[in-house]
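Table 4 source record.
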Amino acid sequence: MTTPRAFLPLTIVADDLTGACDTGALFAGSGAVPVTVWPASAPSARVRAIDTESRSLEAGEAARRVRTTTGRLKGTMFKKIDSTLRGRVGPEIDALMRAGSQSSALVCPALPAERRVVVDRILSVGSVPVAETPMAADPDFPAATGSSSVVDLLRPQLDRPLAWISLDKVRGSRTALSEQLGRLSGTVVVADAETEEDLDALADAALAQPRPPLLVGAAGLAHALARRLDLLAPRVDVPAGDRWLIVAGSLHPATRRQIELAREGGLTVLATPDAPADRATAVADLVALARERLEAERYDVVLVTGGETAVALYRALAAERIDLDGAPRPGLAMGRLRLPGRAALPLVTKAGGFGPPELFVSLAREAVA
């Protein structure tokens, strides 16, 4: 069995910034978790997160970036993946396995808090198979297979033997699950999960191995690992104050409804158009406007939604890193954006598809309560 101490230091490797943040924030129970963006070097820390900015790269380039970014790092890796399997998931898993001389991996993208589950290998979002959701139209989703099976989606991307652990095995005895995972050593194991308890069982089984497999998952599996390592951060409050700046580049319908209600609630919202002619230009224009606002005015909190927007703002402000303090809600991260020659900026990040319509309004109300 691997002790929590032996699992550290831990490096979270994500392919976008909001993913690095929402996962890193879970491990802030004993201190801030630093997040850096490629090509910056990762600082020394018990837990740290790296954004390789590789989600939209060609598969070979994504793998090379992950391998060169992590090749000299000490300790254990957690591969953070998108809960809908967007990105170059297979090549990046293989790159991390090679970098860490790992023969096994355990993969589960389930995120029960956002109703994203894996049952009988099928990844579903709100009870709809992922290939039948709007996510399948995303250019970074591996839509060519036409399948919602995690095994089928990985198979064309990953030249390694694949195995599967069914939900009934996950929910059986912890000893039997650990033994099954041990027998599958040398493979990339896809596991079912639809509750946090299922993910806890998988984390326990992984750490029960003489050498744990590479853990690959979304914030759901990360939450289970953070709890198992006794590093899980309690829910944190957003800073007090009524001066909020919301910077929204995500086109996901969830974010669009959130910013609509935020504007109705009197919050300051900067957002890309609903249907921009050129997305990259729209995001660049958005962050330029946000930078002007931040240079001219003081804000108590800046909330950024969408990974592309978050990293564009990070770079526009020449940020050094983000120090994460925890999560005010599932799928969000709260921290301080470290800027050269300036006071740190209180920052909340959110992936585009997360949260209820009233999320921004309810957070802002809490800040002035």
